[in-house]
Amino acid sequence: MKIAIAGTGYVGLVTGVCLSDIGHVVTCVDIDEKKVDLMKKGVSPIYEPGLDELMRKNIEAERLFFTTNSREAYKNADVIYIAVGTPEQEDGSANLSFVEAVVHDISHSIERDTIVVTKSTVPVGTNDWIKGLLYKELPENLNVAIVSNPEFLREGSAIYDAFNGDRIVIGTDCEEAASVVEEINKPYGIPIIKTDIRSAEMIKYASNAFLATKISFINEIANICEKVNANIEDVAVGIGTDNRIGTQFLKAGIGYGGSCFPKDTKALVQIAGNVEHNFELLNSVIEVNNKQQAMLVQKAKQHLGTLSGKRISILGLAFKPNTDDIREAASLVIAKELVNEGASVIAYDPIAIENTKKELGNLIEYTTSVDLAIKDCDATFIVTEWEEIQQLPLEKYKELMKQPILFDGRNCYDIKEAKENSISYISIGREEVVCKDITCLQKN
Ligand code: UGA
Q1: Closest Cα to residue 120, out of 157, 156, 153?
Q2: Got the DSSP string for 55-123?
Q3: HSE-CB for 354 with a 13 A CA cutoff
Q4: CA 179, CA 1: separation in Å to the nearest integer?
Q5: Is 174 annotated in the active site?
């Protein structure tokens, strides 16, 4: 199959590279020349484990191409995937201007009947709108079929997810197009679900909203656990083992971040609002998440009294491990709040520092190792559970910090271990370990 992909962000690039790896000839299109030059050399503009290797392999096999020339890429393609961004607008709705630009481009470029597949996350009804736009500008002798094929990849494990997903959703009212897209995806060996277009569009939002709901639910249970002296880790296992509930996405912490859950939950509230439905449950999920992101600072204030003049280290800036993405990351909320409270902040992340600098500038200090970050600090906040942060022996905090006081938003350590190490360890939804020898703590 000859495939063109519009947009080389997470979704577009990973989709293109993986489709080339299962044997298709794929041309990825982007308007950014520098980015395209880089990708032609097999260098990914985004950090995603395994992506560079797979890019180089398929470039060498002459199945994967990159270009800024959309006309060339689209004109004879069997299938064109739209995978451009749909950023959040001020009112929470999705901005479709990038999608619109691509659709315009497609209608002026294609020279044969084509299938247009939408991978971008778009509000329900958008694919019908795309079809309308296309037919407005398309030469009369040409036809397009529209397919909604939402993406379920997670950043940081996108390649694994592409080859091991739970399902592939194909939404269209054209049986022939459904068969072609099914055929394209067959080598993945992943179950395929065929629906109408609007249901496929809704499946994407409903999936992310449900996962976000699970996270806010477990975070609320964690907050109650703290007050009734229960342990959230045990509770999560106890409820997750019920197959009807499932163990995944029950990890309590400092709330969800990233480019998807925050944006898509707000967009779904907006979609519901447009048809006069007040999505109360999802509004609460969002509210709980906002509170949760600021939770560690509240805990620090409770224990340390004032944060003014304190030196505080933040370990981990990315919204989750294995990515340099800091969009909607709790680290940003926490860093700003700590600075507001008068603390001086020093942060470490293995790869997300450059992106954080673009957002926070010199509001905080940055450093190149965990050791340097925690040295002489009054308190440490664990914000992203990078492997190297999880593996750090607790003795290190005792050795390097002014006083070993740890606020862990990701429950990286055992409570028992914390007790044995005579440190103060405050985590989420679990017993607080307060070391009596640490004098600056309020709750001794
Ligand atoms: C999410 C979905 O998981 C993907 O299926 C979807 O394709 C993607 O959004 C998207 O719409 O493009 P992603 O945002 O990459 O993927 O990351 P997740 O692994 O889902 O994590 C999202 C946030 O939830 C992170 O901040 C993570 O720390 C948090 N989280 C996740 C928890 O706090 N607890 C959990 O149990 C799981």
Answers
A1: 153
A2: HHHHHHTT-EEEES-HHHHHHT-SEEEE----PBPTTSPBP-HHHHHHHHHHHHH--S-EEEEE-S---
A3: 5
A4: 13
A5: no
- Amino acid 114: pLDDT: 97
Find tokens 């509240």 and name the residue. Answer: 298
Q: How far is ligand 1, taken at its centre, from the CA of residue 238, in Å?
A: 22
Residue 170 near residue 193 (C-beta atoms within 8 A): yes
CA gyration radius for the chain? 24
Distance in angstroms (rounded) separating the CA atoms of residues 318 and 329: 6
- Residue 405 to residue 361: CA distance in whole angstroms: 27
> What is the predicted pLDDT for the residue at 258?
96
Ranges in the chain, pLDDT < 70: 438-444
Selection from 341, 343, 340 nearest residue 313 by Cα = 343
Q: Which amino acid is at 103?
A: V
DSSP per-residue letters across 349-417:
-SS-HHHHHHHHGGGSEEESSHHHHHTT-SEEEE-S--HHHHTS-HHHHHHHSSS-EEEETT--S-HHH
- pLDDT of amino acid 184: 98
What burial letters (b/e) apply to 171-182, b meaning 16+ CB within 10 Å? bbebeebbebbe
Asked if residue 232 lies in contact with residue 361, where contact means CB atoms within 8 angstroms, the answer is no
Return the best residue to mutate from 256, 328, 384 for the ligand 1 pocket (most ligand atoms within 8 A of CB). 256
154: CA distance to ligand 1 center in Å?
Answer: 6
- pTM (2 decimals)? 0.95
Q: Which of 15, 53, 36, 44 is nearest to 324 (CA)?
A: 44
| Cα 159 to middle of ligand 1, angstroms | 15
Distance CA 409, CA 406 (A): 10
Q: How far apart are CA 442 and CA 16, in angstroms?
A: 55
* pLDDT (0 to 100) of residue 435: 82
Query: What is d(CA 272, CA 107) in angstroms, rounded to the nearest whole number?
Result: 31
